[in-house]
């Protein structure tokens, strides 16, 4: 969602902030703006649409200065207009602020500020923050006024403040929305996410909720909202700048799809041995305790939720642990029954998704233990969890999750196998077979990527269709849901739905007519024959079947209008391999439809509001 960048340093501030904002474009946005202190006062420029509109305006009429804050806005309160774009300024134009999150009590705050004579220009919730700072600054020093303001806010925020009266510093704070400090040589950044600063530094400070920070070119000072100093050591980010660039691919999504053999390997590295699975000492101890859990609840949103659904099949079937899976936004509001014997497994790429984070907090309040499967070190969920299985997939920039998903599935395989072993649920021969099978997965994914030409042909053939079904059974059921999500996410012209193939007859089949494309996942499994019958049911109604099947399956040919083969593997690992043609199919359909693949309209990468 919204991207924040604040910069203090010697480099030209406008181009530096724009460059960092570009690296946050993946978060999704609909307008952008910048405020610059030019030595005399604050100048603001905002534009609707993409950053290139803002950049063009800045080229035409440049702004120059010593420090700046920039923002990409994903509209929540008020349409994506220039007036609603950030930064917002106070009545006198001496303070400028950018914000990510939602201020839930903004209406009350606005009413009281209006009564005190403040003039509002936008429809945003954000604008109350800057007027509140202005109000408190009438009687308090600026840093105190800033922190006092934050204490009045309910909801979530990451903010960055620029004040004409204090031209050497920027002020930031977070509560429920991410904000990191990038510590460079003679320059300091505030940013929503690490990729924004990677080109300049890998040294970062992660802020906790309810913490404020003052940054200057020399460094950063973290405090509580009451102003008490907080000692915080910088962390060194393992990612480098190349990992956040396209590397010659047309889109980040395509690059990330092709990275999967390597990213899966990274998830396995140091954990999967020839005869055993191990983690670091702390995680090993946690898993030992977890193996005695009576129940696991897997939570996540979107793609991460689909990974959870696959996890349910794995953990129940192989590790013999009862599992529930919940969409995090439902879990947090359904009054779940939790206790010490329940462990909640929060699955999340970003570690910042608001609903998943709320689910984690709820679980902890009720005495349950929390394990996070997460990609971003230092993220909110990683820090709240009792233990973390990092997926090590590197930065995922495209809005549509691909490599993070297959790394989540890989981490779930590791979790399933180690819990199954600890619980004595896996016979020795099966254990050896599973370990050998998992070792092979990166290579199988590499081979699955070779089907791209066939997938592309199928995608081009069906690109003009406007409705798709995706069907599968058992492990292929969540894969079907995920395949449909990928397509509808990046190709907003298309309606795509995933179903359990057995559910077809209970309603959706009524829609099938001549030419309606149905993607079937028909790889090797105990329910293969049943899936083959479902394919026939669609064909009998003149639907078009695009079938993903296991290499060497001769029988399937007569059932398929378009056929895509993937390498054979244990059914347990098949969702990882089968994800590849589904991702590529969505990608090529979207490309044929000229969609904005990396930044689909209305979507945000990191959903930090409810
Ligand atoms: C789909 C997608 C989203 C995310 C969801 C959860 O491609 O990217 O559905 O999976 O917003 O995000 P994380 O995993 O960051 O919690």
Q: Descriptors for this entry?
A:
single chain; 610 residues; alpha/beta; Glutamine Phosphoribosylpyrophosphate, subunit 1, domain 1; Rossmann fold; 3 domains; eight-stranded antiparallel sheet; six-stranded antiparallel sheet; 24 strands; binds fructose -6-phosphate
Care to describe what's here?
With 610 residues, the protein is an alpha/beta fold. The chain has 3 domains: 3-244, Aminohydrolase, N-terminal nucleophile (Ntn) domain (Glutamine Phosphoribosylpyrophosphate, subunit 1, domain 1); 252-448, Glucose-6-phosphate isomerase like protein, domain 1 (Rossmann fold, 3-Layer(aba) Sandwich), CATH 3.40.50; 452-592, Rossmann fold, CATH 3.40.50.10490. 35% of the residues lie in helices and 22% in strands. The chain contains 18 helices and 24 strands. The strands form 4 sheets. Strands 3-2-4-1-10-9-11-14 form an 8-stranded antiparallel sheet, covered by helices on one side. A hairpin with a 4-residue loop joins strand 9 (180-183) and strand 10. Helix 7 (260-268) packs antiparallel against helix 14 (428-449), helix 9 (302-317) runs antiparallel to helix 16 and helix 15 packs across helix 18. The radius of gyration is 25 Å and the shape is globular. The model has no long low-confidence stretch (mean pLDDT 94). The structure holds fructose -6-phosphate (F6R). Residues 301-304, 348-350, 353, 356, 400-401, 485, 489, 606-607 line the site of fructose -6-phosphate.
């Amino acid at each position: 969602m919204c991207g924040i960048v604040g910069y203090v340093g010697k480099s030209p501030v406008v181009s530096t902030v724009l460059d960092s904002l570009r690296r946050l474009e993946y978060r999704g946005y609909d307008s952008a703006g910048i405020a610059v202190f030019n030595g005399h006062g604050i100048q603001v420029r905002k534009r609707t649409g993409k950053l290139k509109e803002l950049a063009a305006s800045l080229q035409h009429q440049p702004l120059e200065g010593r420090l700046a804050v920039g923002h990409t806005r994903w509209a929540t309160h008020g349409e994506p207009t220039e007036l609603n774009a950030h930064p917002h300024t106070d009545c006198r134009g001496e303070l400028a602020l950018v914000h990510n999150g939602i201020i839930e009590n903004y209406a009350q705050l606005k009413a009281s500020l209006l009564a005190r004579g403040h003039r509002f220009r936008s429809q945003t919730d954000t604008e109350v923050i800057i007027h509140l700072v202005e109000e408190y600054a009438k009687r308090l020093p600026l840093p105190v006024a800033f922190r006092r303001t934050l204490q009045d806010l309910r909801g979530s925020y990451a903010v960055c403040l620029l004040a004409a009266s204090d031209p050497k510093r920027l002020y930031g704070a977070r509560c429920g929305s991410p904000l990191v400090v990038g510590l460079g040589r003679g320059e300091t950044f505030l940013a929503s996410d690490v990729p924004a600063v990677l080109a300049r530094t890998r040294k970062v400070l992660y802020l906790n909720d309810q913490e404020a920070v003052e940054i200057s070119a020399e460094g950063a000072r973290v405090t509580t909202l009451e102003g008490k100093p907080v000692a915080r050591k910088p962390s060194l980010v393992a990612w480098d700048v190349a990992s956040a660039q396209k590397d010659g691919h047309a889109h980040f999504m395509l690059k990330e799809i092709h990275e999967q053999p390597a990213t899966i390997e990274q998830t396995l590295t140091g954990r999967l041995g020839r005869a055993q699975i191990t983690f670091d000492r702390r995680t090993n101890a946690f898993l030992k305790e977890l193996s005695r859990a009576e129940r696991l609840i897997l939570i996540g949103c979107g793609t991460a939720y689909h990974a959870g659904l696959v996890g349910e099949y794995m953990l129940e079937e192989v590790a013999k642990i009862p599992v529930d899976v919940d969409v995090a936004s439902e879990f947090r509001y359904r009054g779940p029954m939790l206790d010490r014997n329940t462990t909640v497994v929060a699955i999340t790429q970003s570690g910042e998704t608001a609903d998943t984070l709320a689910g984690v907090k709820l679980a902890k309040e009720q005495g349950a233990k929390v394990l996070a499967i997460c990609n971003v070190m230092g993220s909110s969920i990683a820090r709240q969890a009792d233990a973390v299985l990092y997926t090590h997939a590197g930065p995922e920039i495209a809005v549509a999750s691909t490599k993070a998903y297959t790394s989540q599935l890989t981490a779930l395989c590791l979790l399933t196998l180690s819990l199954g072993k600890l619980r004595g649920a896996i016979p020795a021969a099966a254990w050896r077979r599973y370990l050998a099978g998992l070792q092979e997965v990166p290579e199988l994914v590499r081979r699955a990527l070779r089907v791209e030409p066939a997938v592309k042909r199928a995608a081009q053939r069906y690109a003009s269709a406007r409705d798709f079904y995706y069907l599968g059974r058992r492990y292929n059921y969540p894969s079907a849901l995920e395949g449909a999500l990928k397509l509808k996410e990046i190709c907003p012209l298309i309606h795509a739905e995933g179903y359990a193939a057995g559910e077809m007859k209970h309603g959706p089949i009524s829609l099938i007519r001549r030419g309606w494309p149905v993607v079937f996942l028909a790889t090797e499994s105990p329910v293969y024959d049943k899936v083959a019958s479902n394919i026939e049911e669609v064909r009998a109604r003149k639907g078009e079947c695009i079938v993903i099947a296991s290499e060497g399956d001769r029988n399937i040919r007569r059932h398929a209008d378009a056929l895509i083969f993937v390498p054979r593997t244990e059914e347990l690992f098949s969702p990882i391999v089968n994800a590849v043609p589904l991702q590529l199919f969505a990608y090529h359909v979207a490309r044929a439809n000229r969609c904005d693949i990396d930044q689909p309209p209305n979507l945000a990468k990191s959903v930090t509001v409810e």
